[in-house]
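Weekly structure sync, notes
Attendees: PL (lead), two postdocs, one rotation student
Agenda item 3: pending single-chain targets
PL asked that the sequence for the first pending target be pasted directly into the notes so everyone works from the same version. It is reproduced below exactly as submitted, 204 residues in total.
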Amino acid sequence: CLEIACNMLKVKVDRQSFVRYSGVVEKEYVKGVKVLRNVLGVKAEVDIPATSAQFGCSRVAPTIARVLKTFKERAVANLPSERQIYAEFTSPVYSAVALYLTARKHKIKVDRKQLILAMALTEEEFSAVSESMHTACFDIIGVGQSTDKKRKAEEEEDDEEESFQERVVKSEEPKSTSKKIASRPLLVKQSKLSFAPAIRYKVE
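Predicted structure, written out during the meeting:
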């Protein structure tokens, strides 16, 4: 309760001290903070510059804010018009994910687990938003192939594999019966001679 009150009044707090005085491990403490926030209807506001400094990525704080703004705009634009007015992005998960993905793009190491704990989040909700934001803002924070490009590459790979298998099956088909029958008299004719070579037919 004390931490929530301090956050509402924008008073900086030392969470580690609160965890120590609470007598529980940090993971349980964070869960308790989240439950109280939900019960009290308090929305956690994330100070991007302060949080960026806390996780060692102050130099990309403007980019984090840009990613967050872009994601909100694109997410709302993809919603039906009747639902757009109800869209809300007050959960700290959006700021946390924007920070993490921006840091990864700029090769700044951020402890994912510590970030999730600090924001009182769950791994599931962080992962879900992370996937959505990475796709929506790929042009800003994308790493590797976009979902569409990856899907296209996989389809092309599948087509190549099917084509190769068809060629293999075709090459293993036995020769026609007519060719085999035509070759038999030659074998019989040669067998009458004492110096006839041993012929072994191999079906390719």
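Discussion points:
- The two ends are 80 Å apart (CA to CA).
- Confidence is low (pLDDT under 50) at residues 176-204.
Action: rotation student to compare against the earlier draft before next sync.
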